[in-house]
User: Fold this.
Amino acid sequence: MHLDAAAVGVTQVVVAIGIATCFIAVVLAYGRRAPIAGTTAFWLLGLLVQIPFLVPVYSYMYINNPNRSAEAPLYGMIRQYHLLLQERDQPGQRVLTWYATDHRSFTSLASSNLLLTLHNPWVVPGGMPTLGQYERDRLADGRYKYVLLIDSDRALVDRGLDALAEAGVRVELLEEHVWGEPPLTAYALLVQLMRTGDTALSFAPNVMVDTPPPEFTFAMPEALPLGAIALAYDKASITGTAPVRIQTAPQQWAYAAAIPILLDRTPQAKRLVHLRGRVWQGQIGIGILHRKTNTFQVEKFLNPTPTAVDYYIPIPTPEAADDLIIRNTSSSGMPSEMTVELAEILAPAHPIEPWVRLSDIELAYDKAAIERGTLITVTTAAEQWAYAAAIPLHPTGEAQGVMLKLRTLVTRGEIGVEILASDQKHFITEQRYGPAAEPVDILLPMPSPAEGCRLIIRNTAPNATASQVVLESIEMWKLD
Assistant:
């Protein structure tokens, strides 16, 4: 009642001053004391304009309007937001607000703090939970101590928190709030960035190195198969094979292509993406995507170069690395172009005692043939999918991180190289290879458990075509 009465009183004051201003304006036009009347009218008009903002009740009168049901909870939310900022936000210890930019209410909230946000507030859609280079640069800046994650959907706040963890950002949870009231409520989670030196990241802000560290000697092209590159947007294009030419759509941030990352997903393992390629025009973003949260662990922007360049990008969290995304990051409104000659994953590793020996190879089908010698030649039967040869696995330790490296040369047809499960009914891993001019190293991760499994060589060529492969050597490696 008191609020309503006060609001009516304010309205009456505004009307009275308006009438007085009009009266003085008439005197100004026709009276003798025009300078005095003009000055008085000027000040009254200024007061008329300021009254709605000088009288706090006016704000309540505006917000309590039943036609503006979202303003009251937003106003309350902003008050709570600034109480938090008053306590936490200090020079050199700033609070970055993080939200989805397509939510206008949270943009209004953040604008009350001059849009001091983790993300770029002008990119829509964007913001939480996506972590790109812009966000990573902010996280690496020692002036920022806190991140406030806020959204009406608690699940999105949790996704944002997961995205920070998966990107290698160490945080401590400090406060959790529910602000506002129906129809506008928000979950707000304040975290403190746990810094080592000047960065909250568990890896350097400069995420690309010129040369790989010396321990990264084990190359795994099958872990980043360029032949499996797929179009990620129908307005982009992919042509050729080794090198592959990618042309993006003209829109900035539009995905163009994806290469699956096939890793053993060992937590805290050291892995490095190695690409050799050339950007011809525009700017290309190379990002390591986690599909579950649809966020980049890391992204590097590549600019045009006169020749092909080797790029080495550390993978912060290998167990959450699903795809290597190639996209357009140019703001020119034009497509960007890149050719990729080589793609592989590098890792530190050391050789171990073989679990598989070429001398143990045995015929798996009487219509196939094995020619033994310094090298072993396997000729398959003409039937597609027919087994040709098998080698039993004899594990001597834990299988996690163990890789079989088989050096082969397919001379005709198409060969499938697979690990057959111990139940002898399904394949755990399978790779296919056609003829090549030079020997190829085939890498197969060992299953767990590996006891009772077999390495199978079979014909995968169609049209009743017999295939042939030369087996040169087998090695076993343990990834560090």
About this structure: The first strand starts at residue 94 and ends at 98.
